[in-house]
């Protein structure tokens, strides 16, 4: 099985586990975006610590490296759980789906990395300074587009 197919199957399986928890677990069933917010913050902080520990362990013993990587993998899973649980809440409410989350982040990565995805392969790789200027221009365009979407929504509801 190709790596992409294996990852896809695992994501679909985990998506099903989360959906079942939302249906059948009393605690998971009553969670909301707001009730999960403190957990998201805790998990993000724990992930940041695990990232630093994994970085620091690169110069340590093999045992330290293995432990740090195990911790990092676990914390990445916990953050992914937060994403999937909030996506499940959105799906149940009919407000958004996991597919929309995935599509949105993919589009964002493509948009923010034209030097990777839209660059002429014969063109030289941009410098760090050029990438910084490009990044700021992209972020400015995203902020403007967001402000325009909000204004259009407000005008529509007024």
Would you mind describing this structure in some detail?
The chain has 158 residues and is mostly helical. It contains seven helices and no strands. The chain has helices at residues 3-24, 26-29, 33-57, 62-93, 98-112, 114-117, 128-157. The model has no long low-confidence stretch (mean pLDDT 94).
Report how far apart the termini are: 53 Å
Spans of at least 5 consecutive residues with low confidence: none
Helix content bin: over 70%
| CA-based gyration radius | 20 Å
Shape: globular
Largest sheet descriptor: none
Helix segment tally: 7
Q: Report strand %.
A: under 5%
Multimer state:
single chain
- Secondary-structure element sequence? HHHHHHH
Structural class: mainly alpha
- The overall average pLDDT, rounded, is 94
Count the beta strands: 0
List keywords for this structure.
single chain, 158 residues, mainly alpha, 7 helices
Write the layout of secondary structure elements.
Blueprint: H1 3-24, H2 26-29, H3 33-57, H4 62-93, H5 98-112, H6 114-117, H7 128-157
Helix pairs in contact: 1-4, 3-4
């Amino acid at each position: 099985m190709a790596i992409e197919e294996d990852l896809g199957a695992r994501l679909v399986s985990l998506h099903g586990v989360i959906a079942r928890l939302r249906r059948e677990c009393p605690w998971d069933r009553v969670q909301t975006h707001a009730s999960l917010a403190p957990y998201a913050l805790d998990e993000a902080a724990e992930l940041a610590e695990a990232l630093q520990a994994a970085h620091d362990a690169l110069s340590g013993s093999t045992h330290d490296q293995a432990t740090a990587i195990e911790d990092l993998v676990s914390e990445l899973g916990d953050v992914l759980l937060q994403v999937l649980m909030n996506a499940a809440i959105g799906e149940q409410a009919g407000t958004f789906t996991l597919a929309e989350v995935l599509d949105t982040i993919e589009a964002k990565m493509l948009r923010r990395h034209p030097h990777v995805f839209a660059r002429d392969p014969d063109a030289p790789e941009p410098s760090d300074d050029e990438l910084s200027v490009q990044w700021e221009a992209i972020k400015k365009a995203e902020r403007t587009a967001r402000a325009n979407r909000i204004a259009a929504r407000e005008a529509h509801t007024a």
